[in-house]
Specification:
With 213 residues, the chain is an alpha+beta fold. Helix content is 46%, strand content 11%. It binds zinc ion (ZN). The site of zinc ion has 8 residues, from loops.
Length: 213
């Protein structure tokens, strides 16, 4: 899975130009390789039909998921992010669900997953911030809801200050940074894996910034 921008035309032109790197090998680039099946996503107007791509070097195929979506979630990432932010300021899952018009059990599921990885999320995005930024002040509050979200916001601020407010993946918002720098896996099982950590953090920070290593 590779996170890409929302605009399919830009994805095509970057694929054709060999500008999307393979996450599996060091210097492979991805070329177009059909499409994944279309799916409806709550919060996204049109059905989403993710592009598939194959590495020209190692031949592994990948789904290119727009930065507005999280892996295997049928809701726009903005809705998930709004729920997490609501919890961080003290709202319960029922109130959040009502405000977002999402089933309460769905919101409760998101919050449960995130609650189990607060420290990991904090550590991941602080590393992104330190990689991308200059003289980043590391916020404390690890292991708490607010801390995890502040870490994502700190990473977004560091990326913006180094690369500008608009990246190759679009506007650099905390939600998009949360998606792009987790490879869409913010709520996916097993993320972040310790093995993926070093390479993933460094590459994701620089990828969303539009720079290459
Ligand atoms: Zn490859």
């Amino acid at each position: 899975m590779v996170t890409v921008e929302v605009d399919p035309a830009r994805v095509e032109s970057r694929l054709a130009a060999g500008e999307i790197g393979c996450p599996c090998c060091v210097d492979g680039t991805l070329g177009g390789w059909g499409h994944a099946r279309p799916r409806r996503v709550v919060g996204v107007a049109d059905p989403v039909r993710p592009r598939r791509a194959r590495c020209r070097s190692c031949l592994v195929t990948h789904v290119l998921l727009p930065v507005t979506l999280l892996l295997r979630r049928a809701y726009a990432a903005e809705l998930v992010w709004a729920a997490l932010a609501g919890k961080a300021v003290g709202s319960g899952h029922r109130r959040i669900a009502e405000r977002l018009s999402v089933p309460a059990t769905t919101v409760r599921g998101w919050l449960r997953v995130f609650a189990g990885r607060l420290h990991a999320v904090w550590a991941w995005f602080i590393d992104v911030a330190v990689t991308a930024g200059v003289d980043v002040t590391v916020p404390d509050a690890t292991g708490r809801w607010g801390g995890a979200l502040i870490a994502v916001r700190t990473a977004a601020a560091a990326i913006r200050s180094r690369f500008g407010a608009v990246s190759v993946l679009g506007p650099v918002t905390p939600c998009r940074v949360a998606v792009a720098c987790s490879g869409g896996r913010l709520l996916a099982p097993g993320w972040p894996s310790p093995r993926a950590a070093v390479r993933g953090q460094h590459e994701s920070a620089l990828t969303i910034g539009g720079a290459s290593l």
